[in-house]
Structures are given as structure tokens and as C-alpha cells.
Amino acid sequence: MRTISLGIGWLCLGLSLDAWSLSGQQIEIVGGEGTEKQVRGPNLLKRVRRGWMWNQFVLQEEYTGSDYQYIGKLKSDQDYGNGLVKYVLSGEGAGSIFVIDENNGDLHATRRLDREEKAFYILRATVVNKQTGQKLEPETEFTVKLHDINDNEPKFSKEVYTGSVPERSDIGTSVIQVTATDADDSMYGSSAKLVYSISQGHPYFSVDPNTGVIRTALGPGNMDREQREHYQMVIDAKDMAGQRGGLTGTTIVNITLTDVNDNPPRFTQSIHEFRVPESAKSGTPVGRIVATDRDIGKNAEMYFTIVSGDGMDMFDISTDKETQEGVITVGKPLDFEKKPSYTVEIQVQNTQVDPRFWSPASKDMATVRIGVDDVDEPPLFDRASYVMEVKEDAAVGVAVGSVSAMDPDGARSKVKYSIDRRTDMDRLFNVHPGNGSVFLLKGLDREETAWHNVSVIATEFNNPRQSSHVTVSIRLLDVNDNPPTFAVVYETFVCERTTAGQWIQTVSAVDADEPSTGHKFFFSLAPERTHRSNFTVRDNGDNTAGILTRRANYSRLHQSVYLVPVVITDGDYPMQSSTGTLTVRVCTCNREGNMEVCNAEALSSSPGLSTGALIAILLCAIILLMIVVLFTSLKQQRKQEPLIISKEDVRDNVVSYNDEGGGEEDTQAFDIGALRHPDTAVALEESTKQRRDIIPTDAMLYSPRRQRPPPLVWLHHSAMLENDCNPTAPPYDSLATYAYEGEGLVAESLSSLGSVSSEAEQDYHYLSDWGPRFRKLAELYGAEDCDFS
Prior knowledge:
Blueprint: E1 4-7, E2 10-14, E3 28-30, E4 37-40, E5 45-48, E6 56-60, E7 69-76, E8 85-91, E9 98-100, E10 106-109, E11 120-129, E12 140-147, E13 155-156, E14 160-166, E15 174-177, E16 180-181, E17 195-200, E18 205-207, E19 213-216, E20 230-238, E21 248-258, E22 266-267, E23 271-277, E24 285-289, E25 291-292, E26 302-309, E27 315-319, E28 326-330, E29 341-350, E30 364-373, E31 380-381, E32 385-391, E33 399-402, E34 405-406, E35 415-419, E36 429-431, E37 437-440, E38 451-460, E39 467-477, E40 485-486, E41 491-495, E42 503-510, E43 521-525, E44 535-539, E45 544-549, E46 561-570, E47 577-589, E48 595-597, H1 611-636, E49 653-655, H2 673-676, H3 678-683, H4 698-701, H5 714-725, E50 735-737, H6 775-782
Parallel strand pairs: 6-12, 14-21, 23-30, 32-39, 41-47
Antiparallel strand pairs: 1-2, 2-7, 3-4, 4-5, 7-10, 8-11, 9-10, 11-12, 13-16, 15-19, 17-20, 18-19, 20-21, 22-25, 24-28, 26-29, 27-28, 29-30, 31-34, 33-37, 35-38, 36-37, 38-39, 40-42, 42-45, 43-46, 44-45, 46-47, 47-48, 49-50
């Protein structure tokens, strides 16, 4: 036990890391904070250096006792043992984790504490008078620090580590580093000092005990991916510096050997044999050869080459990127008759080579024998194409040239020739079927077409399906058969006042022929005009000529137009010539020689509207006029009103067919207003409504006397008689409207329009009381529904 001064009047008795254990002796420490103390005792007097703090308690973590854990004792100078002093504790965990005896100042921990959860607690203590509650000492702060014990095992940052290292690596090559931590206090003891070791995975790898770096433990010859690719290790991390009694944590490390190019490709067989038909085109596959490589990925990629053999120029080889197989293809056309078989030597090697493992044995060789199969081939022309020449004036039947083809097969079948008429639609050429001679069927003209391309077909006699084509190009050679002519139509003018020898126009010529030495034209005045011509021609010697005047004055009134004939001759054989006419108009010119006034023909280019434009304008005007007339006539037409204006203007009508009316077009026979306004029509005088389509007769005006009908049907009969005898009534094929049916009668109206619209059952038995005239109606309407079912 120590007596510790905590402040003015304070004493603290507690345990510390360097607690004194002098049993049976009382020790007193004298001196202030930070000074050397004199330790006195009955048998001991020694001066020592303080090694602890006066305001800190140390408490061991993970206490397992059943009682409260004693921490220390607080003692105040104001506590005289009379029971008037009360100790009060506050701060972190006060009252729950830490309690103090208010009478004697003993400090205890109420439960088990873990340093890894909280390493220390800060508390404050004071004393008060129990009676007055007055503080006797100022509040003093102190710390309770937990003393660490080795209660936590090391833990790795990962449960499983994954690493890789190239195969055939040197000893000591780093693979991966594992890391573990310990929650215990690394500043005290060895509880957090870790040591790494391998518990499973020998002898391929090793681990650094301090850093956890895993390295290879065997040499390149023992770390071969093709032998073993995956390894698994168990690494331990032990605290207490690996001493006995320390705690251990473990982790798993999976290590993979990555591939390096340490294996060359090898052919699966040394000799390969293939066959290909001689008709195979360039690029046709012949066969595939296979080589294997124990490496993977890019290290297993390979390429093939033909290094020797009589088929080096006839065949090619490439690598299939998907399967890494060598694909042999036809490089040039094959001919069984010339060579029936070939032999080549093929080499294979990796595309990427590791210099550490390269050697002459990194390549492999294989022999490939290729046989050519004979097939029935079409005739073969001795040339890929033909070019022939013939003069354009050659006669029909003249031979242009010949083609030749033969059957390349051993049978040497005969060949016949023909022209593909799709290439000679005009049938200008033909070919002899036996000897292949090409000759003319019609005359040719180079100026129309200089080249002709036709296709000649060669077909076997024995097998017409075997045929081949060749292109024959025929060039027509030029013959001087076209005379030269003026390049354009020349027309010029001459001033009335001019001088002799005045230049007025330059002319040139063209010729459809194409002489090999080029064109050469000669110009001259026509012989018949040489002596009496008003103009002359001067040949410039460069295929052009100038037109000049021969006198000084010309009169537009005397002669307004001159025609100058010019003879144009070429310089080829046979010589061709033609006469061109130059038109010269006489004009009045100003002093500078510019034309001012010419004859009417020369003014034909004056501005104005063309005939086509005038016709178009006239047509547009006529169309507009027709539209206006049509629109006006439509507006003038009056609409004819319908017989019944609305659906509501409906009355019972009687249609009489006693006399034929005017029909649909009879719009003048009556006034339609009588149908629309019957009340007004009855009130009008009969003389004002005379019918305009018939002449009234006595029969119409005066009907014979008839017996008066019974009262119940009097209205119908009277209306019918009135309509029949009325000369002003509408035509008899029209509708006559009766708006007064049934008024004032007991029977009322028989019209369906005035009846009640109801689906309820009605009683018609009263019809039997109306007399014999209504017996038929009573029988029809008075019967039960079942009578008609």
C-alpha cells in the first residue's frame, strides 16, 4: 500500500504497476510531485525516484472474481474519522461501472472490463459535509487505466488470400504478403507481438516470420505449371512473439502458377496426306494439320510456314485463330495432266518466344503430300483474251483473226466454236465452228463504233456442258472515207465602206477520220467563183483560213447577202473534199467598224416573245374565262325546295292515281305552297289557283249527285270528292294533304299520327257497335292474339 498525496489535504492509497510489497512494514512517501522521495521504514531508509503518477489508478482487465474489484482508496485531509465527511464520485462510468464508499473513500469496479473496448476512464472526486452539503475539498480529476492481458488472438485481414507467381521462378520470388493484427496492447509486454509461420504448404513456399511475405522455396525445375498449377497453404500468426502459451490466428492462401512459354508446339503426326481436284480455285481449302502446345493463352499461339517442297508455289498455309490449326489452301491453278502430286515440308513455331526457353528444338516439322485428282475440264483457250484489227472498209466475209482452244483432259475431245450473241446483238461477226476463224457478217464503220467486243464460246463435242468463254476485242482501222467540213456554220458581216483585203472571218474544219499522221486541211475558193467573187480565201497553213474582201465598197441596197463557197480538202489518201458556204451580210458600220444597221435577217435576234409563250398565255386566259362563266351559271340556278321541309310537317295524305300527272319534271302544274300551308290554301279563292297544266271540264267542276255517306266516314268522302273535282288541286300523282280529318266527330281521327304511342294493350270491342260498315275492322282488331299465332 502507498500513501499518495492527490492535492491539498488529499491522500490516496492505491495499487500501481510498481507497487511496493514489503509485508509487515509501514512505508511513508515524503516529497512533492516530480521529486525524489525518501522511503522510510523500521529497517529501511532509501531514496528512490518516483516512477508512477499520483493521479492514476491501474486496474487489470477481464477480472473474473465474484466480488467487486478493488481499485484503491481516496483519503481527504478533512476526514478526521468522525463520520462527517462524504466522498462523492463523478465522471465516466461513475455510479454504474465505478462506485465509491462515501464513508471511507474505497473505490471499486462493479463489472468485468475489457481494455480493447475502452483503455481508460476519467473520473472526478470530491468530499462534502454530510450535514451541510458544503464541499470540503475542490473537485479533483484522476484516471483509471486498464492493465492489458493477452486475451485476443491475432486476426488476418482476409479469410482467404489469392496470389500468383510465374512458373519456373527463382527461389525466393515474392508471391504475396499476408497481414494479421492483435487487439491487445502493443506497448505492454508481448501480447501483440506476432510471428508468422506455415502450418500447411511445405516445401514449395516459405513465409517471413516478421513481415508475412510469402516466397517460393523451390527452384525453377520444381515449379512447373504443366505438372501442378494450384497450391494451397495455411499460414499461422501467433502472439507472445511465438512463445508457448500465445494465441494463434490462421488464414488460407491459394497460389496459382501462371504460364510462361516454356513448351514448343509439336505436330500430332509427322506425315499428312490430302487430295484436291484439279478444278479447285485459288483459296480452296485442301486440309488441316494439327499441332499441340502444353502452354496456354498467347503462349500457345502458333503459326505455320511452308519451308520446302515442289508445292511451295502452288499452295499456301495459314493459321486458324480459333483452333490454332494450320489450313492448307490452293495458291495457283492445278493441272492433273501436268503434275498429279506435290510434297511440301511445313514448320510450326510459337508466335511469341521467351528467350529464356528458346532453342532450335522450339520448332517442329511435318511432311504433307497432296494428290491432284483429274476432273473433266472445259476447253482451255491459248490466250486469256484476243485483240484483232480490221479495216473499216473490209468486205463481208473477210477474216478478222482466229481463236484456238483445246480440251486439257487426256481424252483431248474436239472443240467447236460459236459467238455469244448477247455480246453481238447486231450480228456483225461470226466464227467458224471448226477452226475458230472470226469473219465479218456486215459492213463496219469506224466513225460509228471504233471497237467491238464479242465473246467466243468453245464447247466440247462429247460434253456440251463443258464450255468456256474468251473475250475478243476487234479494233477498226481508219480509212479516209469522210470529207472535211466546216467546224461550225459560219455567218459574218462586211461594212459598206471598207478596204480591199480586209479580214472579216477565220474558218476551220473538222474530219470524222483519224489519220495516223494527224489532220491536214487545205482551203480555197470554189473554182467557179474565182474570177467574179467579191471575197477571197487565204489558207493560213494551220488548218484554218481567213476570208478577205476583194474590193472597197459594198452596197446594202444593191445586195445585202453574199454566199462565199469555200473548198476544204484533206491531205490523206484517197483525198476527200467538200464545199462549205460562208454567209456574209452587208451592214452599215460606224467609224470604228462596229455594225449599226443590217438587213432584216440580221435583226432576227431582236427581243420579243416567242410563239410558244404567246400560245401559253392565250390558253391560260381561256381557262380563266371558262371558270368564271361556270361559276356565274351555278349561282344563277335556284334551289328547288323539297316537298316536306321538316320531319315535323307530316300529315295523313291521300294519294290518288285517277289521272296521270306531269311526273318529276312537272314543277309548273301547281303551287307547292298548298302542301306546306293547307290552312292558307283553303282560304284562297278558287279562281286564283287554277291549274296550269289542264283545262277544267264539266266533270271536274260538277260531280254527279251521290248519296251522302254515313257520318263516320263523311269527312273522308267529302275530302276525296273535293280533291277530285277541284281544278286547282295538285297533279294526281302528288300528295294531297288533309289537315282536318276527324275534327268534331265522335269517332275522332283514324290517323296513326294522332294515336297514343304506347305498347299497352288496347280494347277494340267498341268497333262492333258501329254497324255493319265496321264489321270487318271489328273482326280484325277485336280478335285475341292467340287467333293469329
